[in-house]
């Protein structure tokens, strides 16, 4: 009788465990099949403005936010320009913070290597690891300033049948506070278009008139660039080199953003040296540490910045919301 009771008890426990495992498996499966990106709208507490954001829930679900590269860039975009983060290049680990005036003074007299050696000894950094100095950039990444322009950018991309997540990502990275930034290479405007790209999509880029300053015109050109070049060529290179394609996945969107920044053929060169055993999210994370041809630090960093800026923007929006409502799942 006791044995029978024990068997019944153990059988019940087994049944409960099976049910728990089944429920957990169902929850995991549901989380993985739910769309990564949804449009969520808020009323901003400070001024009552309606703010919409494309929330990429898979960033947290898949652990992108825990990666050292993302943590590094989140720190940089939130630090003031008066501060410099001393960090280890290979791991992106911040080991110290120094004032900008100190960095500039030592740089002016050629003593940065002396500072590196001091930091190496102080923090016990291995000789094979490289120490870098990265200045804070919160003076550039003014996420509050781009919110109202973001709505217009999303609308224009959507009207051309382009995933509005690209509009949000490009605006957050390229010019969250101003359209007056011009890169060393000559990219200009809110969408940082190169002159030949802008001209190719019908914009006037002349000495007296530069339509890259016009938000709607530059958004139109950027959307067409993403739709007609970045996405199809990212897909083509993946298929050519044996990487599975899922255009709805975050990793593919990040790859298309790399095409926007570095150029599709630079991305092609980078993909050509990555083993096909590396797929999906791991493909992007591998590209962060791949160096070939023109694929180097700035190109590697672009999708890291995309995720870091998204997380900081989401944080800023969520901190100022009055009420929230899911309007619809766009994807």
What does this structure look like?
By secondary structure, the chain is of the alpha+beta class. Among the domains are: 82-135, no CATH class; 143-319, Orthogonal Bundle (Lysozyme), CATH 1.10.530.10. It contains 13 helices and 6 strands. It has helices at residues 2-33, 58-61, 68-78, 100-108, 112-122, 143-159, 164-174, 195-200, 215-241, 250-262, 264-271, 281-287, 297-319, and strands at residues 37-44, 50-56, 83-88, 93-99, 131-135, 321-328. The protein has a 3-stranded antiparallel sheet. The radius of gyration is 24 Å and the shape is globular. The chain starts with a helix and ends with a strand. The model is unreliable at 1-10 and 13-31 (pLDDT under 50).
Give the overall shape, derived from the CA principal axes: globular
Order of helices and strands: HEEHHEEHHEHHHHHHHHE
- Proportion of beta-strand residues: 5-15%
User: Which topology of the domain at 143-319 does CATH recognise?
Assistant: Lysozyme
The number of E-state strands comes to: 6
Low-confidence stretches: 1-10, 13-31
Overall average pLDDT: 87
CATH C-level of the domain at 143-319: Mainly Alpha
User: In order across it, which strands form the biggest sheet?
Assistant: 2-1-6
Estimated helix fraction: 40-55%
- Figure out the total of helices: 13
Cα distance spanning the termini: 58 Å
Radius of gyration: 24 Å
Q: Major β-sheet, in short? A: 3 strands, antiparallel
Q: Structural class from helices and strands?
A: alpha+beta
CATH architecture of the domain at 143-319: Orthogonal Bundle
